[in-house]
Amino acid sequence: MDPNDSYPLPELAKVALTFPAIDNHAHPLLRESHRDAFAFEGLISEATGEALTKDAVNTVACFRATLQLGKLFYLENKPSWETIKNVRREMAYEQLCRNCMEPSHIQCILFDDGLGGVTEFSEDYKWHDKFTSSPSKRIVRVEILAEGILEHIFDDQLSSETVNGQDLYFSFRDGLLKALQDAAEDVEVVGFKSIACYRTGLNITVFPSVAEIMEGLKIVHSQLKATRKLRLETKAVNDFVVNATLDIAGQYGKPVQFHTGLGDNDITLSLSSPSHMQPIIKAHPTTKFILLHSSYPYTRDAGYLTAVYPNVFLDFGEIFPFLSPEGQANVIKQVLELCPTNKILWSTDGHWWPESYYLGSIQAREALLRVLTESVQHKDMSEAQAIKIVKNALFYNANRVYNLGLEPQH
Fold first, then answer.
1. Sign (positive/negative) of CA torsion 27, 245, 190, 123?
2. DSSP one-letter string for 371-390
3. Domain of 120, in residue numbers
4. pLDDT tens digits, one per residue of 188-225
5. Distance (Å, rounded) from C-alpha 394 to C-alpha 344?
6. Residues ≥6 apart with Cβ < 8 Å to 379
7. What's the pTM value of the predicted model, to 2 decimals?
8. Residue 194, H or E segment
9. How confident is the model at residue 160 (pLDDT cuts 50, 70, 90)?
10. Which top-level group of life is the source organism from (predicted)?
């Protein structure tokens, strides 16, 4: 869509397609030297292996992305996916980044820089400020923070046959709380993120017992000793990390993002619905919960939680470009069924490739315009109300929830 095209509601179209946006959840771009480190098909799917390289390219999402990127790269003939890959590979990298970022109208990006591979392959989050008018900020991924603390604690204990569970618990607890407090006081950090959904599921226990945590820490130590790799996936320990984060975040007014729904095959789908989080939400009423990725396919569950709990917000990201246009529109319709429009946030979940920011932005804008135009035409709302929804979803809600203090810069 082009803001110069003819639309039934031109004022709504202009706002939907060009209003400055706060991308409330994204990951850094690859460094130029690593621009081909990952299969480009990851742009349009969370799948892995053959499901990514052979199946994802045969989805409607991929067909659409191919056409849109062909237009972005000024390819006059209908391009193939392989043509897109070849053309982008030949472009100067910073120019490729700029070509993708400028049409996105993203003013500010909040970066989760704890994604696996970021340290080895990606630019620092501040590097991205050259493409935005407001400085980038950080979201701290708490499981990675906790793993770093445990690695330090275990450094001198790997040769030991046994560990003292009580000493281990207190060392970990004190180190974790200190690290969380330091992050909360850092002006560059505007929130936290948990990937409990990936590790043990969203059925998070409210305040697991010290005995359970101590036993869990012993298991982590044994696994590290056996494999020389530390991955936090022992439920009591993971749940303790989440509860500690929610406590500190509530004290400092920093939101906590949760991966919900849509993800790769590392997720247990049945445990990825945010409906499992009801007890933990009730237990932390002063902490702001951000449910990421539209909670797809559990969008209605997420909408329900935002409607009945004042501290719950819903991000409608990552479905762009992973779903078909019809699927994206249906998700937004489900969001609007029950979710208060002052609690809707937007993100690209951009990562690795600049095209993820481009497609994540233009497709979200097109879907919002499509759904809201239909609502106005059906007399479900006025055009002025629809415009307010767009501005809130793209900018003002995130600005308020994360305490960014920004003004939209056109």
1. negative
2. HHHHHHHTTSS-HHHHHHHH
3. 10-30+47-141+184-190+256-401
4. 999 999 999 999 999 999 999 999 999 999 999 888 88
5. 8
6. none
7. 0.95
8. strand 189-194
9. low
10. Eukaryota
